[in-house]
Design a protein that fits this description.
Chain lengths: ~325, ~475
Amino acid sequence: MLSRTADNLFWLARYVERAENLARIIDVASRLATLPSAFAGTSNEWEGAIATASCEENFYAKYDKATRENVIEFLVAGETNPNSIRNCLEIARTNARAVRTALTTELWEIINDAWLKIQNVSLRDIRDNDLGRFLGFIKDMSLQFDGAAYRTMLRTDHYYFERLGMLIERADNTARLLDVKYHVLLPDAEPVGGGLDYFQWTSLLRSVSGLTSFHWVYRETVKPWLVADFLILRPEQPRSLVSVYSSINQFLNMLAENYGRQGPSQRIARATFAKLGNTKIDGLFQSGLHEFLEEFLSENNRLGDALAEQYLQ
Amino acid sequence: MATIFDEMRGTEGSIRPVYQKLARWFEQTPPEVLANRFAEAEAFFRRIGITFAVYGDAQGTERLIPFDIVPRTIANGEWLRLTKGLEQRVRALNRFIGDIYGNREIIRAGIIPEDLVFQNPAFRPEMMQFRPAGDIYVHIAGIDIVRVDADTFYVLEDNARTPSGVSYMLENREAMLRLFPELFAQHRIRPVEDYPDKLLACMRSVAPKTATKEPNVVLLTPGQYNSAYYEHSFLADKMGIELVEGRDLYVRNNCVYMRTTEGPMRVDVIYRRLDDEYLDPLTFRPDSTLGVPGLMSAYKSGNVTLANAVGTGISDDKAIYTYMPDIIRFYFGEEPLLNNVPTWRCREPDALKYVLDHLNELVVKEVNGSGGYGMLVGPHAAQAELESFRAKLKAHPEGFIAQPTLALSTVPCFVNSGLAPRHVDLRPFVLSGADRIEIVPGGLTRVAMKEGSLVVNSSQGGGTKDTWVAE
């Protein structure tokens, strides 16, 4: 297939996934913000949201303070935010439109419908009345897209590149979410297991639709190291780093098999996956969760670059 | 102005045979049902994203082309007559272009004035003494036809560069099949769905000798901001070929390759929807980022076929158009089966005088214009517009032709008040391969949606409808 087509499919899936993650970030922040300040302490959830979306620089260039209004405006449709939900959809559609011929009708219609719809929603309405419905619409769009890709795309390299885009974005998001929460939001003075922790970590689980499944896996109350274990090392959790990398490996292997040759991206992905497999959560906390996540994020980026160089250019 | 011929009611008012079932059906179907189907049609087109861009329109970057639900119907006999004329005309176009870039017999015979060719902006000296595969230049032609009475069809213009609109022909049929299956059950309509297969076969038939048995055909698009991008992606999809942009291709050792995830892959035939001047920055516009550096040299080495060939725009020229009947006689010794609209060449002093004296009755067109831009419709023009055209004509008479304001035929259209006649034209698509000419029955019918209007261009509010050739 054309390198450009692979590139468009890859980024189409990445931006759909990114839009969903942004919706989840806003969802978590607004949930935490409803807590009595006794629980939320001095932390500002909306600052956390900006940090998780990693757009501090752009955000504070425009606003002094991370208030609910500012953050929602910025993350949903901020004009100076290249990664706003609206812009993610715009970019996703641009990529989709460039590869209409490589998409199934279902995939195209989901993206095109969502794009048409978002043209007509008013920011004020979202902020004041309809935030929940809007976030639901974005999550539904992403679920539909994912499902349609799974159900309608031929299992050829088209599909592999689409999946790889979604997975690399997802790994990035999970790691970032953990990193920001761990780093910024756990106050030193708060005793572990206290009220604040509990809400912070359960919200984190909610943000990946993992609260219920956490209990299925662990059968005990939510504890920070178990949350980290769940989102990093548990193969059952589809958003965990290990599970995402297992899939990444699988699709990269299929590509290598199809094309009859391996390259740097296969090697990088294998190394990262092996490293995750050799990690225990206790060791991880000792050596520093933050350092681990930072390194993971940079390896994940390196994989994206290698993939681009090997296939997409 | 002559009486207007309505394709359903003729000039007498009684329903012509080919429309009888259709008229009855529309009469018997309650208006709410029609209105519903009409709304469904609109939703269908928006959903599949069939849009076009209008240049010079800031907000409406993507617009739907209005679609009318009443099919335009042509009787099979009429159609067969038309196709004979179209074939003759397109064969003549290919001969003419080959001659112009070859031995120039038609110029030496004094049929066509030299300056019309050599000073034409669409003339490409790079093509001289080069013969494309199969001697075919115009692989895809869109010949615009208008009808003025029961027996007379005229050619309004020849589009031999990169004619567009065929996707509307196909999608219009698709929409009609979905919305009005019962109508198709009552009629025997010749199918148009195999156009993409025929196009692909045509492209393969002109592959260079260096190509393998399965030539690699690609469609080259300027990209998704082009007004016809939808059509490009649609056709590539239906043909099962890659839709490429200039940056996907490169030339090495005079061969064209495309960049794929598995490395370079050789390209044999390029169905290009990119104008000549953007094709190759080394030969034409150096600032073009849409083209492929070195493409012309690969082309002239015979390692790749471009469809349509470079330099075919010469025959789109409206001054050359006026010579088409002579061109047909010159090469084939036959009388043209399809006539031109009577046309005044403003470059000729007598004609110019007539045109200036009758400006408010005539349609004046720029010889190099297209898409209805830069055109004067005399009877509908304000005084100021007439005067400005008068000045232009006097300054550059050679830049214009003039035609009588034709009584274009009308067909019934679905409007708020029910069915009402609107003016139409027809663009059939003619495919010329190495061994045969193919014309899919029908073509694209464009409608002037405004009552009384004669301008059918989509860029100026025209719409489209399905075109039936009924057996």
